[in-house]
């Protein structure tokens, strides 16, 4: 395919991942966005195969230039934020504009990702009805349309999945709406991308509509149970209430989770009825291994790997799992992440500070608050952990070695030490020390990240946060003093991931993820 492919909704949840998949296949991609500055947050920003174009589907005059020369259009735009009920008219107008402009530009195909409706023929939610109407408007045009109707999408960043995550993580006992017993056929986001790309590569799908779903037909109550098992949480007690309306459900979701109520409302409305595939012809046309709900949730919960892998593509140039959080996802994507970060300017060389860092643990201690560290070690040992008895690893620090209640994940002398805490705690903790020389001085940075598990983890992290902050500030000062270069007070900062989040062939984004 020599002509470019246009992706509308390129900065959205599915669109952002689809652009990455298309570029990784060597296709030319034109990303239609209203705000090009949002592209700087995406891993494919600056890729030579990408052509950003500013346009608005509600402004018909902006579309001819955006569509000029394109062979296929992916239509991934729909309103998820309730504003009166005006979103339905906006969806209709956008679809009409795109259909007309595509015909005028000589586009050969439109691929539309819609929603899976209930089989019963009962009343639809306003947003699902709007998505079905968009499909009819597009199909009424002269350009052949392929419609994929998707149920709940599983993966970090998907609003419906994040609602599931936060509810199970934060509520040991749930009084829930009746929709928790509705039947659904959730599909992993990587399988959604597989079907979208597959339709592009198979012309016989033009002019047809397909239901896409995963291999499991399951209730939300069962999803809650699977999530709790995969997250290592106790089984949740679920008490469905017959009187909780979609609006009250949305308010309940907003109070418990960081997902905005305006997004939760259309999702809650759509969950009140069953959504399972009526036909599965697509499986024979585009064969792929469909992830089960448990597999998709397990991928989305690989949080330690996500924290350590500071990129959106793998060492072999392949893309990382789409179920992981990606740069540009909503702030609520990926679950709760508690972070403390301090830095200190020290009049020393990196090697001097590293000599101190390499002596961490055991009798040497942690260069601050020795009694507190010993107390924490005793508590850990009492709970069946390793405690502080092990001391520094024989032969020095190296990836994979253990000392005290730490396991070394990354050791890059004299610049970076990353430790995984193995102490008994309701969550996973990463502890990093970094040294960077700047203008004759060294900047010593400490970053602590805690990934809480369940409500106990949230309480644990919140209660200990003030003590941890004081401890880490003292620790930085102690390291500087032990190196023979006492320094002032550390300052807080917000770590910016290293500029490695870009696809092969493209430059790093200066803005970072």
Care to describe what's here?
Helix content is 35%, strand content 20%. It is α/β, with parallel strands linked by helices. It has two domains: 5-308, Rossmann fold (3-Layer(aba) Sandwich); 338-492, Alpha-D-Glucose-1,6-Bisphosphate, Chain A, domain 4 (2-Layer Sandwich), CATH 3.30.530.20. The chain has a seven-stranded parallel beta sheet with strand order 3-2-1-4-5-6-11, sandwiched between helices. Strands 15-16-17-18-19-14-20 form a seven-stranded antiparallel beta sheet, with helices on one face. The longest helix is centred in the last third of the chain and has 29 residues, at 454-482. The chain is globular and about 75 Å long.
Number of domains: 2
Number of strands: 20
* Uncertain ranges: 498-513
CATH superfamily of the largest domain: NAD(P)-binding Rossmann-like Domain
Q: Largest sheet, if any?
A: 7 strands, parallel
CATH class of the largest domain: Alpha Beta
Q: What order do the helices and strands come in, and which of them pair?
A:
Blueprint: E1 5-8, H1 13-24, E2 29-33, E3 50-54, H2 63-67, E4 72-75, H3 86-105, E5 109-115, H4 126-140, E6 145-150, E7 153-154, H5 159-170, E8 173-177, E9 183-184, E10 187-188, H6 189-201, E11 209-211, E12 218-219, H7 220-230, E13 237-241, H8 246-256, H9 261-270, H10 282-285, H11 293-300, H12 303-308, E14 338-346, H13 350-357, H14 370-382, E15 402-403, E16 406-412, E17 416-421, E18 427-438, E19 441-452, H15 454-482, E20 491-492
Parallel strand pairs: 1-2, 1-4, 2-3, 4-5, 5-6, 6-11, 7-10, 8-13
Antiparallel strand pairs: 9-12, 14-19, 14-20, 15-16, 16-17, 17-18, 18-19
Helix pairs in contact: 1-6, 3-4, 5-7, 7-11, 8-9
